[in-house]
Design a protein that fits this description.
The structure holds two protein chains of two kinds. By secondary structure, chain A is an alpha/beta fold. Chain A has one domain: 3-Layer(aba) Sandwich (Rossmann fold), CATH 3.40.50.300. Helix content of chain A is 36%, strand content 20%. In chain A, strand 3, helix 3 and strand 4 form a beta-alpha-beta unit. In chain A, 43% of the residues are buried. The mean pLDDT of chain A is 93. The longest helix of chain B is centred in the first third of the chain and has 16 residues. In chain B, 25% of the residues lie in helices and 31% in strands. In chain B, strands 2-1-6 form a three-stranded mixed beta sheet, with helices on one face. A three-stranded antiparallel beta sheet of chain B has the order 4-3-5, with no helix packed on it. In chain B, a hairpin with a 6-residue loop joins strand 3 and strand 4. Chain B contains two helices and six strands, in the order H-E-H-E-E-E-E-E. Chain B starts with a helix and ends with a strand. Classes of the chains: A alpha/beta, B alpha+beta.
């Protein structure tokens, strides 16, 4: 019997493709965000509100993942920006190759911002790098405040947590402070923005965050 | 949930390595799984065993080294186990310490029988 020492990550093939994607995003000075949450936290609603705030000449696009339907793409395609559904056919996450395939016939030079809406799942998506600049975790107030503690990997890797549905706070037992503290327990530097897709509350901060992050990407690319 | 895909990646990498040695048979694969990797070791084992059971030949085994979450203090350099999300350095009290281990998802070795 002989033993061969192996180096490298189990998902090295995904990481290789993700590195290629990251290189292409950088080359085109594109900002790419990967949105991760449980099913029903409001990723699609957040994107609807976000797309509605862009001007027609803004160069924004969305890739949206779902196990079975193309409901997200239908909801998001009414804003005049390129939207493509990735139907995973059972897979509980998006991987880098799916993104690569979906981008094949898009001119990245014509885009400044790409949102990737992952499959609703707080566990698996975080293991798969998609070449994005930032992972964003979305948590809604109709879920438990302990989600960051129960799914620490996602909240550790996310640079931003969006606390969604804050218009429902009067009707649910949910402590914003506790949710914030739990997220910071897992990831002390995580940024947190509270929003409501129904009232539009918090969207100004969210847009500022996008602007700031996008500006950072451009300066990185120029450096 | 995604452990079947992970198990498949492990097996593909191991088999691809063994294929460089004509006639060799894969006996065992070693992996390192972090506490915060998002991969459940027992679920990974179940998936791996399901995959190799279909091959007919005596199936290869999976060795899992489970890595606990540890942080490193950038101030005093101490490395400590993170429990209950408490990341304050137990040596010098610095509150902001950095992940050191616990998100591993690596293949570490393969054992094979050469013909």
């Amino acid at each position: 019997m002989s033993r061969i020492a192996m180096e490298g990550k189990v998902l090295s093939e995904n990481e290789r493709v993700a590195a290629e994607l990251r290189e292409r995003f950088h080359h085109n000075q594109m900002f790419c965000a990967n949105l991760i949450s449980s099913p029903g936290s409001g990723k699609t609603s957040l994107l609807e509100g976000t797309l509605a705030g862009f001007a027609p000449e803004d160069r924004v696009a969305v890739l949206t993942g779902d196990i079975q339907t193309d409901n997200e793409a239908r909801r998001l395609s009414g804003f005049g920006f390129p939207v493509k559904q990735i139907t995973t056919g059972g897979a509980c996450h998006l991987d880098a190759r799916m993104i690569q395939r979906a981008l094949k016939d898009w001119d990245l030079g014509a885009l400044d911002i790409l949102f990737i809406e992952n499959v609703g799942n707080l566990v698996c998506p975080v293991s798969y790098d998609l070449g994005e600049c930032h992972k964003i975790a979305v948590l809604s107030v109709t879920e438990g405040e302990d989600k960051p503690l129960k799914y620490p990997a996602t909240f550790l890797k996310a640079d931003l947590m969006i606390l969604n549905k804050i218009d429902l706070l009067p009707y649910v037992r949910f402590s914003l402070d506790l949710a914030r503290n739990n997220a910071r327990k897992v990831h002390p530097e995580i940024e947190i923005i509270e929003v409501s897709c129904t009232t539009g509350q918090g969207f100004d901060r969210w847009r500022q965050w996008l602007e700031k992050s996008r500006a950072n990407v451009s300066s990185l690319c120029l450096a | 949930m995604h452990e079947m895909g992970i198990a498949n990646s492990v097996l593909e990498k191991a088999r691809s390595e063994v294929s460089h040695f004509p006639g060799a048979r894969l006996l065992r694969v070693g992996v390192r799984i972090g506490e915060w990797s998002g991969v459940e070791p027992e679920s990974l084992r179940f998936s791996f065993e399901s995959l190799v059971a279909e091959t007919g030949a005596p199936p290869p085994a999976l060795d899992i080294e489970f890595c606990l979450r540890r942080n490193r203090c950038p101030l005093c350099g101490s490395i400590f186990r993170v429990e209950d999300y408490l990341i304050t350095c137990p040596e010098c009290g610095k509150t902001n310490t950095l992940p050191f281990s616990g998100d591993e998802l690596q293949i570490t070795y393969i054992d094979m029988e050469e013909s």
